[in-house]
């Protein structure tokens, strides 16, 4: 079966642009229909990828064309176990956002759909890019549509939205410039050391091991860019204003998808090409991740704005994902991939539910204005309960499997950090149950209207909840398809942290099978003199 990834990547933007041209301002129905068709096309291709993907294989469905020969930049796309389910997650969440937004009317509608289609395309491009320069381009471009979506259709006064997106751009621009510098240095130094032509392809970069000093500063540049985008503590300064200002359906996909591209970058780029630096900075990265877990958890049960509760809880959950990545173990990395999918499937419906709750209490997104509709809206309550239970990783949920694998891998590599990280599991139950109880139970808020979900709400929420339940029943599907790719990704770092055992010494100090050492010579095994 041949699946051309270019069609998957560019379909959302192409259909949205076509809709804007054909629909314009006079026929918004045409614009919406074509934008929806582009999103559904990408979803169909993503599902076909998962069904057709051969577990245990390497990079599949590869498109490789030389793009800029003088700079060694390839237009290279491909899918393996690292990005397979992230591609599916991206298409699922953009489809949910599109369905949610289709029922709303807004000014300059064709522009809205063009920006949303471009965002979908750029995120998919970053996930399937197999050339570092191409990845950097998509990684930077995917923020631009969200800038305009927030500025044009966000929440609050225009001055507040401008301030929020300006802060977001400043933070991410600094990180992007550092990553661009690191990408150029990595390619140039790899070419110089290997004596081959300049190339940004991941397959070429991973074959060259740079000196330790070069690896260290390049690693720090990549880490800064990825930690800002996630965001992780203390690089999260843009998050509160940004989350408060984004339109809700856009925020659902932003929180559910963009942060995963950053986490994926560590496994795709950093660990395979900079293994010595990954080992050298392992403890630093684990401490940053642990701080994110603790800080995000404490803030999540300290604030009352529902958006910020979910935003800070995301910082905590992303901290767990980074813990899994930098456990530098097979189990931890597999848990990080699974938890990336889990978090996206949980946080997106949580934001949609937050919008429904706000609509029932006069537009307020404050927990103190909510409550008292649990028995008056049983369907909404049931869906919210499933999402909440998945978020706190109760046994039997896919989130439990992901966090268990992360903590297992961390336990085997950094015991002290693993023990402290266990507190994050307990803290998750505190902020999640507080969110659910305050929003659905207690006394009825002063302006609360008790009504259940509409058909439109169900069309968006029910499939997402069914995906959560499906992964809870069979988490082996993403784990099995990702296993071989995860092992290849962490193998260079794992070889440094866990070198193969040397042959056991025979009685008398001789090594079985070793050649005799001449008098006064050098022992070929120990390197010392006999």
What does this molecule look like?
- There is one protein chain.
- With 530 residues, this protein is mainly α.
- It is built from 20 helices and 2 strands.
- It has a domain at 281-498.
- The protein has helices at residues 5-23, 28-52, 84-102, 109-128, 132-141, 143-153, 158-194, 202-205, 212-229, 239-245, 248-273, 275-280, 282-300, 306-325, 330-359, 378-391, 398-413, 415-440, 455-473, 476-497, and strands spanning 60-68, 73-79.
- A two-stranded antiparallel sheet has the order 1-2.
- Helix 15 (330-359) runs antiparallel to helix 19 (455-473), helix 15 (330-359) packs across helix 20 (476-497) and helix 16 runs antiparallel to helix 18.
- The protein is globular, with a radius of gyration of 24 Å.
- Mean pLDDT is 85; it is low at 503-530.
Quick overview:
With 530 residues, the protein is mainly alpha-helical. 69% of the residues lie in helices and 3% in strands.
- Secondary-structure element order, N to C: HHEEHHHHHHHHHHHHHHHHHH
Radius of gyration: 24 Å
Query: So how many helices?
Result: 20
Number of strands: 2
Q: Helicity, in percent?
A: 55-70%
> Biggest sheet, in brief?
2 strands, antiparallel
Could you report the average pLDDT, rounded to the nearest whole number?
85
Question: Residue ranges: pLDDT <50 for 5 or more in a row?
Answer: 503-530
Widest beta sheet: strand line-up: 1-2
Shape: globular
Strand percentage lies at under 5%
Query: Which class best fits the helix and strand makeup?
Result: mainly alpha
* Distance between the amino and carboxyl termini: 62 Å
């Amino acid at each position: 079966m041949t699946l051309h990834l270019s069609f998957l990547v560019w379909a959302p933007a192409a259909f949205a642009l076509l809709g804007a041209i054909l629909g314009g301002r006079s026929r918004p129905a045409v614009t919406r229909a074509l934008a929806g068709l582009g999103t559904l096309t990408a979803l169909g291709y993503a599902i076909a990828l998962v069904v057709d993907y051969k577990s245990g294989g390497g990079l599949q469905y590869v498109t490789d064309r030389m793009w800029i020969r003088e700079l060694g930049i390839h237009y290279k796309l491909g899918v393996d176990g690292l990005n397979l389910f992230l591609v599916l997650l991206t298409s699922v969440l953009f489809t949910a956002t599109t369905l949610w937004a289709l029922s709303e009317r807004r000014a300059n509608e064709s522009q809205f759909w063009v920006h949303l289609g471009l965002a979908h395309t750029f995120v998919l491009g970053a996930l399937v890019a197999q050339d570092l320069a191409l990845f950097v381009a998509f990684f930077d471009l995917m923020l631009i549509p969200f800038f305009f979506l927030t500025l044009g259709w966000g929440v609050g006064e225009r001055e507040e939205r401008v301030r929020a997106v300006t802060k977001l751009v400043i933070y991410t621009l600094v990180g992007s410039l550092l990553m661009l510098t690191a990408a150029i240095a990595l390619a140039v130094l790899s070419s110089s050391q290997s004596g081959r032509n300049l190339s940004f392809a991941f397959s070429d970069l991973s074959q060259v091991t740079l000196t330790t000093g070069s690896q260290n500063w390049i690693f720090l540049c990549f880490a800064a860019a990825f930690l800002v985008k996630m965001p992780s503590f203390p690089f999260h300064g843009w998050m509160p204003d940004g989350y408060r200002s984004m339109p809700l359906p856009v925020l659902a996909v932003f929180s559910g998808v963009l942060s995963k591209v950053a986490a994926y970058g560590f496994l795709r780029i950093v660990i395979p090409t900079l293994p010595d630096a990954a080992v050298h900075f392992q403890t630093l990265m684990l401490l940053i991740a642990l701080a994110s877990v603790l800080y995000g958890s404490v803030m999540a049960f300290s604030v009352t704005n529902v958006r910020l509760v979910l935003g800070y809880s995301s910082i905590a959950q992303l901290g767990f994902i980074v813990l899994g990545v930098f456990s530098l173990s097979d189990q931890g990395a597999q848990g990080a991939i699974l938890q990336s999918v889990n978090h996206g499937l949980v946080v997106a419906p949580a934001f949609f539910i937050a919008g429904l709750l706000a609509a029932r209490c006069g537009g307020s997104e404050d927990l103190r204005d909510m409550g008292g509709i649990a028995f008056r809206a049983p369907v909404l309550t049931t869906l919210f309960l499933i999402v909440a239970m998945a978020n706190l990783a109760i046994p039997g949920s896919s989130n439990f499997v992901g966090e268990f694998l992360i903590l297992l891998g961390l336990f085997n590599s950094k015991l002290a950090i693993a023990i402290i990280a266990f507190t994050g599991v307990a803290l998750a139950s505190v902020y999640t149950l507080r969110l659910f109880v305050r929003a659905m139970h207690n006394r009825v808020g002063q302006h609360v209207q008790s009504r259940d979900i509409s058909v439109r709400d169900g069309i968006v929420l029910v499939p997402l909840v069914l995906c959560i339940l499906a992964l809870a029943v069979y988490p082996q599907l993403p784990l099995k398809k990702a296993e071989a790719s995860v092992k290849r990704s962490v193998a260079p770092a794992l070889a440094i942290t866990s070198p193969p055992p040397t042959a056991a010494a025979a009685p008398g100090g001789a090594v079985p099978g070793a050649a005799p050492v001449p008098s006064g010579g050098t022992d070929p095994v120990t390197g010392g003199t006999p």
